[in-house]
Amino acid sequence: MNGALSPLFRPLDIRALRVPNRIVMAPMTRAYSPNGVPGANVADYYRRRAEGGTGLIVTEGVAIGHRTAVDSPSVPRLHGRDALDGWQRVVDAVHKAGGKIVPQLWHVGPLWGAMGPVDPGLTPMRPSGVWGAVGTTSYPDDYVRRALEPTTPMTEADIAEVIEAYATAAANARALGFDGVAIHGGHGYLLDSFLWQSTNTRDDAWGGDLARRTAFPAAVVAAIREQVGPDLPIVFRFSQHKQQDYTARIAEDPAELAIILRTLVDAGADVLDASSRRFDLPAFGRSDLSLAGWAKKLTGATTMAVGSVGLGKSLRESRIDGKASSRDNIPELERRMAAGEFDLIAIGRLHLADPRLASTLRQRAELPSYNRAVHEADLS
């Protein structure tokens, strides 16, 4: 298929936002913001992807204003005048290059302490005080042993405080001129930990059956919608797998997934970002439909797929052995997108290897080779 005629290069309208193509830079933790403040190097990093033609940039996870939101001082935050000034430079640089950008709001929840030492006097935010059932994970044994120690479950005051922190971060994003807001609701982090039965054993309004387990993520989405108004889109990332257990699931069948996703869409989410280790991985039973495909079928919302575009190994596999083989799965990606299975494709690692990835795909040039040691070493 000619690059210019590819479904990857059709524009898309999401509320008041028009993206020129369907290629999204996936959120990737980079941790190059000392004391949480993004500097000129971060602005240049995102600007280069905008100049390269990427339709929409989703930033790395950004800390909301809560004391246990993130556990690394090098992860950027979206509160405090110094950090907001830094993000203003990022937004201005991306817009000047003709790009669109949204911040991914992040609270690590039960996974507090995974990125490094933390203040032992702070209690991680966990729905029921538990880390979750241990399964297939890439976390080291010493961290898992510490994390398995039970903590105090979140109180009603904790829940209200965190919702307010998300809302404030969204208001900050709108004031800075971001083109929307993304929310990290997957991978075992805070919002996902309410969805997962292993981490949410509550018997109040925030837990119990699947509908009640979705109440907290939906309340966060609704609070953000109230702050950003009717024009800015909200992107919600969800996943089956958890970092506690890559085989875990929040939904055993499409009917259960529908309960979660329809509730989030009703609360104000516009784009369902279906995080999977491979974008073409079947989600349920005998169907070939991907997780993003099921999200679209069940809700009719705009959906985004992600996972191993141009690569033969998932992120977890490549981290274990340090290598990432190449795989030309672009024709399969285009086939699924042309069939309407999903609307957007988020690409992570190849965006590190090639800031001009969108142009490379349009020109049908050779895909870049990803090398973790090289491409995660700096903000090139």
Structure report:
The longest helix is centred in the middle third of the chain and has 21 residues, at 156-176. The protein is built from 14 helices and ten strands. The model has no long low-confidence stretch (mean pLDDT 95). The protein is of the alpha/beta class and 380 residues long. The chain has helices at 40-51, 81-96, 141-147, 156-176, 190-195, 210-213, 215-228, 254-267, 291-299, 315-321, 330-338, 349-353, 357-362, 372-375, and strands at residues 12-14, 17-19, 23-25, 56-63, 101-106, 181-184, 234-239, 271-275, 302-306, 344-347. The strands form two sheets. Strands 3-4-5-6-7-8-9-10 form an eight-stranded parallel beta barrel, surrounded by six helices. It starts with 11 loop residues before the first strand and ends in a 5-residue tail after the last helix. It is globular. Strand 3 (23-25), helix 1 (40-51) and strand 4 (56-63) form a beta-alpha-beta unit.
What layout of secondary structure does this protein have?
Blueprint: E1 12-14, E2 17-19, E3 23-25, H1 40-51, E4 56-63, H2 81-96, E5 101-106, H3 141-147, H4 156-176, E6 181-184, H5 190-195, H6 210-213, H7 215-228, E7 234-239, H8 254-267, E8 271-275, H9 291-299, E9 302-306, H10 315-321, H11 330-338, E10 344-347, H12 349-353, H13 357-362, H14 372-375
Parallel strand pairs: 3-4, 3-10, 4-5, 5-6, 6-7, 7-8, 8-9, 9-10
Antiparallel strand pairs: 1-2
Helix pairs in contact: 1-2, 4-7, 7-8, 8-9
